[in-house]
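Usage example:
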Amino acid sequence: MSISQSVQMAASLEEYVLKALHSVTEGPGGLDIVSSGQVFDVVATGGAVRVLLDTDHIPDGTEEMLAEVITPFVEALPGVDRVVVKPRPRSIAMRESLPGITHVIGVHSGKGGVGKSTVAVNLAVALAQQGISVGLLDADVYGPSCPTLLGITGRVETTDDGEKIAPMNRHGVSLMSLGLLLPEGQALIWRGSLVDQGLPQLLTDVDWGRLDLLLVDLPPGTSDVHLAVARHASLSGVVTVTSPGQVSIDDVRRGMEMFADLQIPCLGLVQNMAGVACQKCGEVGALFGVDGGGDLAVEIGVPVLASLPFVPELAIQSDLGEPLVISRLGSAASRVFHELAGRLATGLCIGERKEVLS
Amino acid sequence: MNQPFPYQVEVGNAETGVMYGEPGSDIPSVSDVVLIASGKGGVGKSMVTVNLACALKQRGKRVGVLDADLYGPSIARMLGTDNGLEYNEAGQVLPAVSHGIPSISVANILPPEAALVWKGPLVAQALVQMFREVAWPELDVLLVDLPPGTGDVQLTILEQIPVTGTVLVSTPQKLAMADAERGVALFHELDIPVFGIVENMDSYICPCCGEKQTLFPQGGVKTLAEQKHVAYLGGIPLDPAAQSNADNGTPLFETHGADNLIEAFEALADTVEKSVERERRLRLADADESTRAAHQAFWERLVD
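Running the assembly step on the lines above writes:
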């Protein structure tokens, strides 16, 4: 089956389910649940159907009852494999924007160790090289990596007036990370409730100055930290990083679902570690599976923004604190990051960009 | 503003009244709980968990796997278990069984497109249920695949579940080792035995010519283990063939041609088995009144 065919089928399934839901009424002679606005929309991906409820139009406390009615009803329809009933996407951002910051973008992945921080750091530096004022917030509270990747050591200090924390600066990027507050080797043992208190401070108590773009390097998974960031910064979107293996793709899918629920758009996928070249025979081995990111992108309709191979010596250099867009300006990998930066900046209509000889 | 963040360690849990060092009661059918932990994500915890389970099973141990990574569950795919779980007559959830290993994972319960965004208290509840309300068969060892980091999941397990020991997994990258160091600090602080550190992805095996080459600088994990006074449990090479098998739900031990990986896991299983035995002996000695009396007498004599 071609992609356009499957997209068409999904669209007709959505229409069909919505139409069928018109026959569910609140009681004899009552309005049906679609006309009354209780059902907000139906979204189908393959045979998996999501029915989105609008809680504004549902009497308090009856949401679960309604879901219990809808689920078996929709499950019984032909062409439906699975049903999920949930509230419609809604932003949980508590403030419109952060003062002085035009856009906040999250860098996210479902699985750990796929190279989120490496992508975030190189993307930030590439953006800075293109003349965009950019900040990087390392929100991975349990394993902050950005200071190491940028080659920053030491501790942050307060600004001259003592009111705020001054971020560290390297390669034109302002960085704030918990790694700059903690002694090395000490474990940060934070309960979710502490994340709720501590994380907002990283956004508001840091003297970011004026920024076109603040990148937030999120931890893996779908946790308290993600909710806290979505609550305290109005995210313009997320860039999702994945390795090509199915195990990683599974987790990415879950992560994307969470951001969809929070009305935060996914700007695209970055596929990392898409193979490694043998130093003896040159054969490129698929390190963590083959092009799972490409398949996922087609399935859910987001672009693949970049695809990067695994280059051992670059990993070593990252460990030494030299981002590859600095140490290998002009290499294929650095061009990939500059293209990614360019796409992102153009997509968000940010500032006047300089052409960089990447 | 000297201390802008509340980064003290929270000791114990006011709500449940359970403190570290006084973990909850034993899980009736499980003899020993062993955690597989890492600071950083993506270093191969789940891969190590699954293959260690297979290696222990080959040695005749009764072993189960609990996937405590609620936000990024991988065990179900790696063991090839299905969505959906069955119940026994008493209404208890039965673990999924594949390759002769009972396991449980959030991925067995949730459809793949559902995200799990749980706040701390819900995490605690779900985890304890996975340990205590699942009808585990009689097990010698229950391996627990932890999520990366030092957050709610780790704290809840350490508070509520009696843990025999931990195996840490790290790759030779500096970043992974920095996080592993944090992991060691956590377990040492809470007095949980660390059986040792496994060095995953210490080399890469080319699928074409079989050439074994290093991906990262060597020796870092060994040095870290020495510095922290924990055992170095050996290296495991990265094999693309094993990766695609993991994606398909076939553990290494069911495939052929991955001999050096299998050797590595047999050695690891041996260490884990011995460490668990040692802890078990210590526990028995602790429980024995005459030994305790002898200990006390020894210390009193020493004081005199």
